[in-house]
Q: What sequence folds into this?
């Protein structure tokens, strides 16, 4: 598959990210520029040839590391000199080990790993919350057998804000940014005009709202995108998805993604500053209409409304402004009371089915509330279980993003006792 041609078709709208999903797409390694190899996979990898071995940005996940190594070796037999982690997510940091084993066999110097100083704390947190991360990632991606790792290859060297290094004659500039994570590194190779963004750009509505993950930083993310746009890169290699070739396209993609985030942040903060409740903020904030059709901003992974949640959490805490939610009753108790008032849990389920038959997004959202109340009130009722499964299956079918689809599919399975 010609990755450059596919990237061009995506940009032109001749195909879409729903067909070539940026997170799950996998292809073969290609030399994207002289001495620069790009491997699109579950966590993209980039390799640069130098006079003293390879320099890599990201090394893939535990699942993709063998393929990554095999593909790199079809392109170059040179040892891995240095690897940079663009951030600490596990789909980007698990390929160094296979190069270290190779180095030991060949009696080469072991690879040197560089990352931002916050990254080791991420690994520490992943060990502390391994069970929780296993559950939420099984749910998010629909992988019931996913095992969350508890051993990590920590960096040999960390830096604070900016870091310049030379690897075999290749000048490399690293800069710390905050966005999807607080440990992100942007890699800029000025002499080759190549920019490696990590997950600060992934051919999707930015992953600044993920419902099951820790805090994101959309305002700082937009600032990072603005800084990258000023570099004048000729080749952009993202953490997920296709390359972007050509300075005008790169500037547009980065600038408009920044504008997208800035608009959502500004709208949310304006309503918060007026004292609005979270529910009203969530229903009012919309991304800019003129960016809605951009092929690199579609809600195929995260969604704009989820970003609003993270902005509220970042600037306003966890309380949503509803006094009943400050110290709430248990959901099951509330469900039981409302079911009794409605004439039984079955009546709630019937109304949920009626709404779901309407088919609109608003109807399905309300149906989700009602069937969840019915199920919480009578979780062992087979008819209610079946209704909940049908309704959340319908919600999953209509969802555009990986985040929403994963949660709704999990709820559908949970309805009949299938747990991750």
A:
């Amino acid at each position: 598959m010609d990755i450059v041609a596919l990237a061009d078709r995506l940009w032109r709208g001749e195909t879409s990210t729903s067909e070539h999903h940026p997170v799950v797409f996998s292809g073969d390694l290609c030399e994207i520029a002289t001495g620069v190899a790009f491997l699109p996979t579950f966590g993209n990898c980039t390799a640069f040839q130098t006079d003293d071995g390879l320099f890599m940005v990201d090394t893939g996940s535990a699942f993709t590391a063998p393929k990554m190594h095999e593909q790199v070796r079809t392109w170059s037999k040179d040892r891995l000199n240095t690897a940079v982690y663009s951030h600490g997510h596990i789909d980007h940091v698990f390929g160094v080990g296979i190069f270290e084993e190779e180095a030991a066999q060949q009696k080469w110097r072991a690879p040197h790993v560089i990352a931002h100083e916050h990254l080791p704390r991420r690994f520490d947190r992943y060990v502390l919350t391994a069970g929780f991360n296993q559950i939420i990632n099984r749910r998010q991606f629909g992988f019931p057998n996913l095992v969350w790792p508890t051993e990590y290859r920590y960096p040999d060297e960390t830096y604070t804000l900016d870091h310049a290094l030379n690897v075999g004659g290749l000048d490399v500039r690293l800069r710390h940014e905050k966005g999807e994570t607080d440990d992100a590194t942007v890699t800029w190779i000025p002499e080759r005009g190549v920019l490696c963004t990590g997950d600060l750009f992934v051919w999707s509505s930015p992953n600044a709202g993920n419902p099951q993950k820790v805090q994101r930083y959309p305002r700082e993310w937009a600032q990072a995108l603005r800084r990258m746009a000023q570099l004048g890169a000729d080749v952009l290699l993202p953490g997920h998805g296709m390359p972007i070739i050509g300075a005008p396209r790169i500037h547009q993609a980065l600038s408009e993604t920044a504008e997208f985030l800035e608009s959502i942040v500004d709208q949310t903060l304006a309503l918060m500053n007026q004292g609005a409740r979270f529910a009203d903020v969530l229903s009012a904030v919309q991304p800019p209409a003129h960016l809605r059709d951009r092929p690199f901003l579609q809600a195929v992974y995260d969604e704009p409304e989820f970003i609003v949640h993270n902005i509220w959490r970042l600037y306003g805490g966890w309380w949503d402004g509803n006094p009943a939610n400050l110290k709430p009753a248990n959901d099951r108790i509330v469900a039981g009371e409302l079911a009794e008032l409605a004439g039984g849990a079955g009546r709630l389920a019937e109304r949920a089915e009626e709404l779901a038959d309407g088919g609109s997004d608003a109807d399905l959202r309300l149906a989700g509330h009602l069937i969840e109340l019915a199920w919480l009130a009578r979780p062992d009722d087979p008819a209610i279980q079946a209704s909940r499964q049908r309704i959340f299956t319908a919600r999953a079918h209509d969802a555009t993003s990986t985040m929403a689809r994963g949660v709704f599919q999990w709820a559908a399975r949970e309805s009949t006792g299938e747990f991750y």
Q: What stands out?
A: The CA atoms of residues 9 and 15 lie 6 Å apart. The chain has a mean pLDDT of 97.
